[in-house]
Amino acid sequence: MTTPGTHQFDVLDSELLHESPILALRRDTLAMPGGGTGRREIVEHFGAVAVVAERDGEIALVRQYRHSVQDRLWELPAGILDIDGEDEHVTARRELAEEAGLAADRWEVLCDLVTSPGFCEETVRVYLARDLHEVDRGEAEHEEADMTFSWTPLEEARAMVLRGEIINSIAIAGIMTAAEVLAGRGEARPVDTPNPWRPQALAARRRAAGVGPDLKKMP
C-alpha cells in the first residue's frame, strides 16, 4: 500500500464516448491505490474566460438564460476558448465587447478556477478590467439575443452572492476576488501570467482532425 498522497494515477485505457461542438465525454481507466482499477467519466472542455469590468465602484453584470437550470442567471461577461491558439486575454477582450459593449485599457488576472473538478476539466480565467470605454456590441444571437445588462455596485453584487441571488460559480469567484483586490486586501496578477490549467485534450483532438481555427466545428 502506497503512502497516501503519493500514488500515481496512471491512465491504463481511455475511450471516447461522445463528442459535440463544445464538449466531449471520455471514460478513463485509472490505476488505483492497492493495485485495483477504477473508471472515471470526464467531460472535456475548451476552457473559458470571464471579466469583472469595474467602473466607479460598479461592475458589469449580464443576466442570461441557462437551460441546464431553466432560469436566467446573473453572470459576468464570459466566453469559451474555442479559437485555436487564441490567447485568453484576446478572448476576454472580445467577449467583453460582444456581451457588454465595453473595452478596457487596464487588464489584470483575478483568479483561475476549475468549475467542476469531480467530472469536468473546464477551467476559467477571470480578469479584472478597468479604465473602460464603450464600443459597438455587434449582433447577438441565440441566448445572448435575450441577455440583459446592468451596472451593479460591487458591494451590492457581494450582497447578492450572500443572499443566494448570484449562484453562477464563476461570477461568485470573480465578484469576491475583485472585492478583495479593489479594497486593497489582495493583489491581482499580471495579464500575461501563464495558465497551466487551460484544458488541452479536446482542442488537441480537433486540431489533429484538421478542425480550425474555430474548434467548435466537428471533425
Q: Could you explain the architecture of this structure?
A:
It holds the Pfam family NUDIX. Residues 189-219 are annotated as: Disordered. One of its GO terms (molecular function) is hydrolase activity. Residues 44-174 form the Nudix hydrolase domain. With 219 residues, the protein is of the alpha+beta class. It is built from four helices and ten strands. The chain has helices at 88-100, 154-162, 169-182, 201-208, and strands spanning 11-19, 23-31, 37-45, 48-55, 58-66, 71-75, 78-80, 102-114, 123-134, 148-153. The strands form two sheets. Strands 4, 5, 6, 7, 8, 9 and 10 form a seven-stranded mixed beta sheet that branches. Strands 1-2-3 form a three-stranded antiparallel beta sheet. Helix 2 packs across helix 3. The protein is globular. The relative contact order is 0.19.
What is the general shape? globular
**Terminal residue distance:** 43 Å
- Report the count of strand segments: 10
Helix content: 10-25%
The CATH topology of the largest domain comes to Nucleoside Triphosphate Pyrophosphohydrolase
Query: What structural class do you assign from the helix and strand content?
Result: alpha+beta
What is the beta-strand fraction? 35-45%
Q: Pick out the low-confidence regions.
A: none
CATH superfamily label of the largest domain: Nucleoside Triphosphate Pyrophosphohydrolase
The overall pLDDT average reads 95
Helix-strand pattern: EEEEEEEHEEEHHH
**What Rg is obtained from the alpha carbons, in whole angstroms?**
19 Å
CATH architecture of the largest domain: Alpha-Beta Complex
Largest sheet: 7 strands, mixed
Keywords: Hydrolase
GO cellular component, one term: cytosol
InterPro entries: NUDIX_hydrolase-like_dom_sf, NUDIX_hydrolase_dom
Domain Nudix hydrolase: 44-174
